[in-house]
Amino acid sequence: MSQSSLPNMPDPVEPPAEPPTRREVVRVYRPVRNQVEWIERDLDSLVALDHPVRDIWAAIEQLKLEGFYARIKAVLDRPGHPASDPEVLLALWVYATVEGVGTGRELDRLSHEHDAYRWLRGGVPVNYHMLSDFRVAYREEMDDLITQIVGCLLAGEVIILKRVVQDGMRVRASAGASSFRRKSRLERCLEEAKEQVERLAEGREHPKPGVSKRQRAAREQVSKWNY
Fold it and tell me: Could you tell me the residue range of the domain that residue 130 belongs to?
């Protein structure tokens, strides 16, 4: 039989694209802050009622974060382990930005050792790779969200930004009175928040070489403080 007489074969059928996961059907680890741990105190009692992490969490709970849930494959009617809640990962990065923490490795350590970070985590599993991958995967969305959240909380005098200077110490950062006279408070605070986000991103992507042991020790010591 000649090649020209062969019957036409049907084109292969492409499998339908899987729709994005809806938030209401995902299975994720949610924070549990009223569970008693080995310290015989629940996490909620470790953080003051007026601590800024509570305001950060309240702000994030008001956001529509469907895009962060769309890629999660663990859903209610399928097997598999739950994912770590994106709200928690976002909240940790927001507070890290406020505190002048820019690296996933330091944030991972604080999330297991620092009461305020532990409260935000609420027992949800996190690690260095997860935090870093989440920050990279949603960089543009995260930069914008963190800027908006931090800027609004700064304008409402709920938080105080802390910046890391060359000697490893964190210092408070605030706009001068003349700056607020020239621009609205919210506009100026959003600018400060954006500058903080960009500064930390620069340090993450281009860490300064030759940091001395004394500087590293100072940064680690300061990061242990409960503000």
Answer: 19-204
Q: Is residue 221 part of a domain?
A: no
Q: In the numeric block, which tokens belong to residue 79?
A: 């097997």
Residue type present at position 189: C
Rounded to 10 degrees, what is the CA torsion of 148, 150, 151, 156?
120
Residue 99 lies in a domain: yes
Residue 40: inside a domain: yes
What DSSP letter does each residue of 168-188 carry, written as one string? S-EEEE---HHHHHHS-HHHH
Contact (CB, 8 A) for 70 and 19: no
- Using DSSP's 3-state secondary structure scheme, residue 28 falls into strand
| Number of domains forming the structure of the chain | 1
Strand 83-84 versus strand 161-164 pairing type: unpaired
Torsion of the alpha carbons at 133, 218, 92 and 62, rounded to the nearest 10: -140
16: pLDDT strictly greater than 50: yes
pLDDT tens track for 156-206: 999 999 976 544 455 555 555 555 555 689 999 999 999 999 999 988 877
Query: Is 160 part of any domain?
Result: yes
- Contact between residue 26 and residue 69 where contact means Cβ atoms under 8 Å apart: yes
